[in-house]
Amino acid sequence: MSKFSQRLKELRLESGLTQTQLSEKTHISQTAISGYEAGKNRPTDIVIIILCRFFQVSSDYLLGLVD
């Protein structure tokens, strides 16, 4: 599992959201979110921006470049 996959799942769970709820709030498909968390898919730049804004974290944090 990549740092991104791990961080995304941690942030989602800390927020008390299911993948479906996160999908509804960010307009990113649940299938895509599942793929990101499983490490099967890589997010586009725009998806990273949407998730960073939603969770109020930096892209460096989300991508696992800083703690």
What does this structure look like?
The longest helix is centred in the first third of the chain and has 12 residues. The chain has 5 helices and no strands. The protein has one domain: lambda repressor-like DNA-binding domains (434 Repressor (Amino-terminal Domain)), CATH 1.10.260. It is mainly alpha-helical. The radius of gyration is 10 Å and the shape is globular. 66% of the residues lie in helices and 0% in strands. It starts with a helix and ends in a 5-residue tail after the last helix.
How would you summarize what this structure contains?
66% of the residues lie in helices and 0% in strands.
The domain tally reads 1
Question: Rough shape?
Answer: globular
Q: What is the CATH architecture annotation?
A: Orthogonal Bundle
Q: Which band does the percent of strand residues land in?
A: under 5%
- Rg measurement, Å: 10 Å
The name of the CATH topology is 434 Repressor (Amino-terminal Domain)
Question: What is the CATH top level name?
Answer: Mainly Alpha
What gap, in angstroms, lies between the N and C termini? 17 Å
CATH homologous superfamily assignment? lambda repressor-like DNA-binding domains
- Poorly predicted tracts of residues: none
Q: How does the helix and strand content classify structurally?
A: mainly alpha
Please, what is the average pLDDT?
97
What's the helix-strand series?
Answer: HHHHH
Helical content, roughly? Answer: 55-70%
The biggest beta sheet reads: none
Put simply, the count of helices is 5
Tell me the total number of β-strands: 0
